């Protein structure tokens, strides 16, 4: 009793999920998910279905022609084997429904056909040929719970057929082989399904990581823009404060009320400058490598282009003489710099054309590169995000995309009116 009690205590937790798994295998309404083996292109999917149907038809013809009697070549064989053949073909797109049809075909063949003239195994070779791929497909495409139910029902069917078929069967010899024939494709299919699930989880995690990196890059670029704009705004606030403070000495004598007004303006500018520096301290708290050199502008484009040419890039430049505000000039420089960096990274050895000019009421920056001489290295997409952030900062827009010859084009338009307000 103690042994039986111990065995029951250890086996009951293992058997508890079996009824639910059997119910899921037998009565689940539809197959869930797309079978992993189906091609994405419709024509290849149809070709796969045609090949499987042809293979099942050849198997049926071979079985009907191999019978020593009229047992497998009669019209009754065609009717009883039809569900097994249909399940084999249906498993390509709906594996669980194909398995259910196969079960019906095995039962019909086992009990509706006359017995063979000689002792035979539980399932004959042609039946295994049509059933094993179905078991493999079910375990590959369905959830583990459903696969467990399929295994239990399939093994039970083999036992029932072996015990109740109208012809003599040596269960001690054929039943272990039949069990192996059922479990082997199920184990292989479950392994393939686990690998497929792991691959999908990895792809989803990589997509989430890429999104997080893109968002982090956008935030870092915004912080960098804020730091750069601080330098520009702080410069002008300092000039306002200094001019207001020195006005009584430069423009003396001044009216008392005018002097008080200028002093108040100077104090307000100094207060705004202090608050701006405090906000900048928050932005730079985690950035110990923040740039400390003066911020570049359109006057520094020549040095930028010279460095790109020195790196071996075939660069053609058309830059007009522009007198831009410091903030707008900084954004023009950064957009051109990032576009050239993207061209060097993604299209090494490609010729590059840069155009910077005033077009109507906007500054137009266009960077076009041809196809690379060698494959480039992929990026996280932060460069385009940063350029778009800079363009939108000035009320402009940025368009980027491939060209007809396999190259890439970046076009930014920054309005002058917004920058000069």
UniProtKB/TrEMBL annotation:
GO terms for molecular function: ATP binding; phosphorelay sensor kinase activity; protein dimerization activity. Residues 327-418 form the Histidine kinase/HSP90-like ATPase domain. One of its GO terms (cellular component) is membrane. InterPro entries: HATPase_C_sf, HATPase_dom, Sensor_HK_TwoCompSys, Sig_transdc_His_kin_sub3_dim/P. Keywords: ATP-binding, Kinase, Membrane, Nucleotide-binding, Phosphoprotein, Transferase, Transmembrane, Transmembrane helix, Two-component regulatory system. It is an enzyme of class 2 (transferase). PANTHER family: NITRATE/NITRITE SENSOR PROTEIN NARX-RELATED (PTHR24421), NITRATE_NITRITE SENSOR PROTEIN NARQ (PTHR24421:SF10). It catalyses: ATP + protein L-histidine = ADP + protein N-phospho-L-histidine. Its EC number is 2.7.13.3. It comes from Geodermatophilus nigrescens. Pfam families: HATPase_c, HisKA_3. The chain crosses the membrane at residues 47-66, 72-91, 98-114, 126-143, 150-169, 175-194. The keyword Transmembrane applies. This is histidine kinase.
